[in-house]
Specification:
Oligomer: heterodimer
CATH superfamily of one domain in chain B: IHF-like DNA-binding proteins
CATH class of one domain in chain B: Few Secondary Structures
CATH architecture of one domain in chain B: Irregular
Strand content of chain B: 25-35%
Radius of gyration of chain B: 21 Å
Strand content of chain A: 15-25%
Largest sheet of chain A: 3 strands, antiparallel
Distance between the termini of chain B: 35 Å
Structural class of chain B: alpha+beta
Shape of chain B: elongated
Structural class of chain A: alpha+beta
Largest interface: A-B, 51 and 53 residues
Helix content of chain A: 40-55%
Distance between the termini of chain A: 30 Å
Shape of chain A: extended
Number of helices of chain A: 4
Chain lengths: 114, 114
């Protein structure tokens, strides 16, 4: 799903809003996250996950093609840690598929475990 | 000296050194200011945005937000892990995990002016 497909999907459910409005909202969401990270902050979205900035120290790198040693400056990288609810939902969808694939008996077993 | 003194203004959650935490509530606030819906509407919309993302990822579909990054669901095969304390071997079951791959735009945004 791309951003425009997301906007499309949302506009089917938010009939009272124009696509332009929805686009502004979606952009605002991701811009706000980016802005917060730029300031070195964290973004905590309960049920979804947490975005934060992690520091990577400077290191001696190597161009894998030429083998030339290069100096890589220390830098900040965005990091996303998936939240509990989403992590479980993503993983549970696997279990549901397993149930479909396996025979009735093991499906029964799995259900007992869950 | 109280803990509060050591922690700066950590208590009220504003401008802690190293950046503050952006929450869903503040995200809703900025949507509310930008588009001028009621707070309830703004809140419902933000919740719907994240719920739509979660439902999509739950289905195993990836989400690509240009200029921000890609959320990708990855299948992990079962593997043998080890309890680091006891050295005991255990099977780690097959699972589905969510990873975030930040876009080049986001990565460079975090390293501007360094």
């Amino acid at each position: 799903m791309t951003k425009s497909e997301l906007v499309e999907k949302l506009s089917n459910e938010l009939r009272n809003l124009s696509k332009t409005e929805i686009e502004i909202i979606v952009d605002t969401v991701f811009n706000k996250v980016t802005e917060a990270l730029k300031k070195g902050g964290r973004v905590e979205l309960r049920g979804f996950g947490t975005f934060e900035v992690r520091r990577r120290p400077a290191r001696q790198g190597r161009n894998p093609k030429t083998g030339v040693t290069v100096y890589v400056k220390n830098r900040s990288v965005p990091f996303f840690k998936v939240g509990k609810e989403l992590r479980e939902r993503v993983n549970n969808s696997l279990d549901q598929e397993t149930v479909k694939k396996t025979d009735e008996l093991s499906a029964q077993k799995l259900e007992n475990v869950l | 000296m109280t803990e509060e003194g050591l922690m700066g203004s950590a208590d009220n959650g504003v401008e802690v050194t190293g950046g503050k935490t952006l929450t869903k509530a503040e995200l809703i606030e900025s949507i509310y200011e930008k588009v001028g819906f009621s707070k309830k509407e703004a809140s419902d919309i933000v919740e719907l945005v994240f719920e739509t993302l979660k439902t999509t990822l739950e289905r195993g579909e990836k989400v690509k937000i240009s200029g921000f990054g890609n959320f990708v669901v990855r299948e992990k095969r079962p593997r043998i892990g080890r309890n680091p304390q006891t050295g005991e071997e255990i099977e780690i079951s097959a699972r589905r995990v969510l990873t975030f791959k930040p876009s080049q735009v986001l990565k460079s945004a975090l390293n501007k002016g360094e």
